[in-house]
Backbone:
């Protein structure tokens, strides 16, 4: 029952991602067929810089649906159920999450909030609670199995598991949904854990497709001002002043 | 910190629901404008039976998108976080859920799985665990507040809260999404709690719009056979035999 | 075969719309159950002004999903197929459109672009073309019926129908989707016809729910600047200057 | 202004598609982390047959969301606007379509319905109409440009273009959405053109991922009976008889 570490692994990106976005944008305004142009695109006959410049220009004019053609799939472990409950609220995405109904959670791992980890008294209290929960889980599972509940004992016993309990999840989002996710969850208003997850995902996106993600992040970084209002702003960017 | 009871209240249904579905279906196949016909529809000049028969006939032919024009909004309390995590996986829906980051969970309520409730030894163990969690929550919150964490103490302390912790949520689904939700969650394979929630929602839907929901429920009730396979079937309907 | 006029009729709005949005927002931050508070809300015990102020404040902080609980359904006639092809690209919405496969389009109505309507030579050429198309439709339908094509003659003959051909459609969008639709389609970059449709829908939304829609419209009206870039701006608002 | 031929080119498939679906399914029921297992999966240490058998088994039990992690992107040309209007009604998908507002449609190509193509009198009438429309488009464009309408002349003149006018579109759908699309559009009730498109897409899917798409197609092929009802059935499968 160790404390869990978040790990995010990129399982898949749509191949030829920049060319695909470029081709989709071009098809909107082009007389010819991008299916025809495709072999030359992937052979690099139109430079990555030219493609990136075109994509940037159309994106800036507010036309962003073509970035949807590219998706990223991540395998995530070492995140709490609190975090995945926030994650799966993003509906334009696909999720396959480890089930607490079917997977045995004896000796579950858990996440420790940083403010607790750096406070020895709080950490001790937190860990004592985790230990008690683990023992309750095991005892309940045994009692229910003894009462003939079979495989369903796990789904009953899970009711004691904490929000801190570690989960694993496979996540696919297209680039438009990712940009939206980052705009909300890289913001300092997001909870530390989902913000950490968003930042990990963004780093992988930047490696794979810098032309699209280099400038991505919280909304303030696109807007040049903080849209969260006086009550919530972190102060990194000025609030919007209506001219 | 009492044990919670599920309550589902219907807050809103699209008005003139049957007429709206009828009008939408008619518009697909009709030369005239249903906007023109609308006052006569809502005045009852075409009988509810005639409308229902038309809707049923087109639905049976596999054309189901017009039922999307009608939505139901429910306020739900007395459900566990385990249950809402299953609920919000239904993506064609809108959710507003009580936040454990902002709401104080001292003396949280909790749900008890029936197999635990009817097993005195299990119930005692379960309740002892809930009591321990509540005291950990309060002590952690106090420790973190004392350490200057302010309002964020709640969002850290919530990591000890159990999956059993009670939540409240406002849910809106359109009728197509509801029919899909019922087909999966009224099935005996669904966990007891989300199945209970689905059945409560279905009862309210049947009251408000019997023409659409009288025959709704688990997939087997539409199909006439169980699609869950030998391993998972509850035996209520025969498995499908490929002719 | 007259020239068609657009008509938009509001068929349905979610009842108690402002209270529903207020209740959904409240549930996120409130200890109690909004299902409990609901009868007092709809009885007006919390004033419309108080509710509106709360909604505005949370919306401004960037939390906009609760407005999804309210939907509007419109019946639309007198719009071209060009316009509906743009409309149905908005995917978070439900549509029931008059089918050219099943509805007889002999003597179809059509839309005339304003720049053609005010140019006598262009209008004459346009109308001559419409007349020729109508006669081709009728002759093809007769020829195909004579060849035994039956009811499918219509779906073949429709291939000659112009983009100008009038269509009828029932549209449901929730308020979040509506605000997005207005932000794009009330903009002067949108084509005249879908912009006219968006403005008609916005006027009906403003009547029904002014607290939410009074300030809605093109993106510039929210942002205070034009995001469309130098090449596309209409000049009504200044371009964004990065500070 | 030749008659157009449909061409569908597969631009992209999510890499390691079968392993990705397998990994996503496994994560739901597996204690370990599929991110850990991933290098061995893509190295082929678990055979394609084993993976396929697992996927098939879970799919059959009604759990189909993990197939969403894999997407296909197609470039399509040689389809009519009638066809793309049907295509884009599938909302869980991404589209980038050639714009008739921005692309010059002088000498547009067009599609000819087969029942017209094989009927000499109908074909002659159809082609005469296409010729008249092309000349109207050109004359209107010239008249509007002469009247100072500039680049917007195209978006006005396009109102005469027929439903038959050829379009090009880039389409991305995930596998769950594709299976649904095929179930409706490979059915003989679908119009010949979108059915041809669906069959072309299905053939490409079968080549790339036979484990998932070998058995895909119209609903009857999964159900073993025709769900379209007596009025619409093509007779290939028996109607469902309620046992």
Residues:
């Amino acid at each position: 029952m160790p404390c869990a570490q978040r790990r995010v692994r990129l399982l898949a990106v749509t191949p030829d991602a920049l060319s695909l976005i470029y081709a989709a944008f071009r098809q909107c305004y082009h007389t010819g067929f991008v299916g025809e142009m495709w072999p030359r695109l992937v052979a690099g006959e139109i430079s990555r810089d030219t493609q990136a410049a075109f994509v940037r220009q159309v994106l800036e004019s507010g036309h962003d649906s073509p970035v949807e053609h590219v998706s990223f799939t991540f395998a995530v472990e070492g995140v709490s159920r609190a975090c995945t409950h926030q994650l799966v609220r993003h509906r334009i995405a696909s999720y396959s999450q480890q089930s607490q109904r079917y997977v045995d959670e004896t000796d579950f791992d858990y996440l420790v909030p940083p403010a607790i980890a750096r406070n020895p008294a709080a950490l001790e209290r937190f860990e004592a609670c985790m230990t008690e929960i683990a023992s309750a889980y095991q005892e309940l599972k045994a009692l229910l199995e003894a009462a003939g509940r079979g495989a369903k004992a796990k789904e009953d016993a899970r009711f004691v598991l904490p929000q801190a309990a570690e989960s694993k999840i496979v996540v696919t989002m297209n680039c438009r949904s990712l940009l939206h996710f980052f705009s909300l969850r890289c913001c300092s208003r997001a909870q530390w854990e989902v913000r950490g997850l968003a930042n990990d995902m963004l780093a992988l996106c930047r490696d794979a497709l810098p032309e699209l993600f280099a400038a991505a992040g919280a909304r303030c970084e696109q807007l040049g001002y903080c849209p969260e209002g006086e009550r919530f702003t972190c102060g990194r960017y000025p609030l919007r002043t209506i001219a």
